[in-house]
Write a structure and sequence with these properties.
The structure holds two protein chains of two kinds. Chain A is built from eleven helices and two strands. Chain A is an all-alpha fold. The chains are: A mainly alpha, B mainly alpha.
């Protein structure tokens, strides 16, 4: 069975060829059957292609490999391979606590094009800066708003290992209300830390070990 | 403008839109999404609107 992407390519080519037939021979629309076929070729198929294509683009842009396509994001992608369990994203990524193929999107669900209208505008601004502006150095990139505990609690809330921890139990209401941050209150504050990558070891999944 | 001419313009715009969509899907970069949405999207909408206009103009 061909993948959905291959089916979409096939549909795009068929649609373009069908429209081309009408461009070369518009007289086909002279009868009722021709008009109906033209309606399918000029309206139904292109609309289907664009809805499907848009969905495919959005789905692809959730992939980890897509996020690190931008040069500026490469150190963030590398940070997922740091061989140190104190690095929260690396620990989650390497132990498959998050889906590795959509790792960035899993923890940054309201980022850039996936968030509200402001986030979408920021996403467009990022692309503008990437191609036409002067991107900042990776270590200077900061989140627009403090990291939302919701992203952590989405999985950890109710989990035995999380709930049986006395510290978590004591501050649970502050965590759920975002009064206390999981990542910047001194508990789990080693995140991507891209500025210090020259001093850390990296895990090599192919060899199972680590390297400098 | 006669009906075949309008249909040809609409068809050319739609073919371009579909080809741009195909190329942007094959080119996996952030810029490809913008090309798809803004260039392909505009051509698609223009092509469809011109086709719909051709339907209305027949009735007239």
């Amino acid at each position: 069975m061909p993948s959905p992407a291959v089916l979409l390519y096939f549909l795009l080519i068929i649609s373009a060829l069908l429209v081309a037939v009408f461009v070369l021979r518009p007289s086909i629309t002279g009868n009722r059957e021709g008009k109906m076929l033209a309606f399918i070729a000029f309206l139904i198929l292109p609309t289907l292609c664009f809805v499907w294509g848009g969905t495919e683009h959005v789905e692809r842009s959730k992939e980890t490999k897509f996020c690190i396509t931008c040069h500026i994001m490469e150190p963030y992608g590398r940070s997922l391979y740091v061989d140190d369990p104190a690095y929260v994203p690396a620990q989650h990524f390497q132990n498959h606590r998050i889906p590795t193929d959509v790792a960035c999107f899993t923890c940054h669900t309201d980022y850039a094009l996936y968030g509200d209208i402001r986030a979408k505008l920021r996403g467009l601004h990022h692309i503008y800066v990437q191609y036409l502006g002067t991107p900042p150095s990776p270590e200077k990139i900061k989140l627009y708003t403090p990291y939302n505990n919701r992203e952590c609690l989405h999985c950890h809330m109710g989990a035995r290992s999380f709930m049986s921890n006395d510290v978590h139990k004591a501050i649970l209401s502050q965590l759920t209300s975002n009064q206390l941050s999981c990542t910047s209150s001194g508990c789990h504050d080693t995140i991507h830390n891209v500025g210090s990558q020259s001093n850390v070891k990296f895990w090599n999944p192919d060899q199972g070990g680590s390297h400098e | 403008m006669n009906m075949p001419h309008i249909l040809r313009i609409s068809g050319v715009l739609l073919i371009l839109a579909l080809l741009i969509e195909l190329l942007t899907l094959l080119w996996d970069k952030p810029l490809s999404f913008l090309l798809f949405a803004f260039v392909g999207g505009v051509l698609f909408v223009a092509g469809v609107l011109i086709y719909l206009y051709s339907l209305v103009s027949i009735r007239e």
